[in-house]
Amino acid sequence: MFDKWMQYSYAAQKHQRHRYLKFIFVFFILFLLYNILSAFFVSAWALKNDTMQPSLAYGDRLLFTSFFMPSKENQFPFKRGNIVLVDMGNIKNRKAPLKAADTIVRFFTAQRHSIFPREDQYYIKRVIALPGDEIYMNNFVFRVKPAGSPYSLTEFELAGKPYHPSIPNVPALWDGTIPFSGNMDTIVLGPDECFVVSDDRSNTNDSRTWGPVSPSLITAKALLRFWPVVKFELY
Hints:
This protein is of the alpha+beta class. It contains five helices and eleven strands, in the order ααβββαββββαββαββ. The strands form two sheets. Strands 1, 2, 3, 4, 9, 10 and 11 form a seven-stranded antiparallel sheet that branches. It has a four-stranded antiparallel sheet with strand order 7-6-5-8. A hairpin with a 2-residue loop joins β5 and β6. α1 packs across α2. The longest helix has 32 residues.
């Protein structure tokens, strides 16, 4: 009897439609808030490799912010030593329908999946040098002479927070012309170039093989690591 009332009652059908519309409205608001937060404020990302060992490990989850203001000393919203998100696929300049579809996929999979191929994804790296800096590498450790400075310092002296890269062992006679040798000739970054690297220096999927990247491709910087809880850390 009750089922028939639900089927033939105008009031019941109207009530059901209102429930559907309310659900759609709430979903739309949540989706809109998610996009606003992830585009302008914060987004969570999981590390899917070990390229940032020992600082970060596979499965670590970090909170990044895209909302930042340049300081008086630095026109860029990130500093040397910051962990950042690098958009090597230039995804933000893709066509709007593809970006919208990718956003939906990321929304429903908690940032685990994307419609773009893996090589077009974002990379979590560390900023070593900024535009105008002079930089070289010796035994996998970078020395940087900031633009306008007469002195070169190690990457650690210029970082605001201590970190310890993983230094691999390579044969003494290893070819010094390739990144795995641990050495890199001096280069001077251009006005639209930054240098980003992996903390695991045996992995060269960074500026050592890509070359310097534009600051515009650095879309966010890490705020904190929130998972695992025992490794909680502010950046």
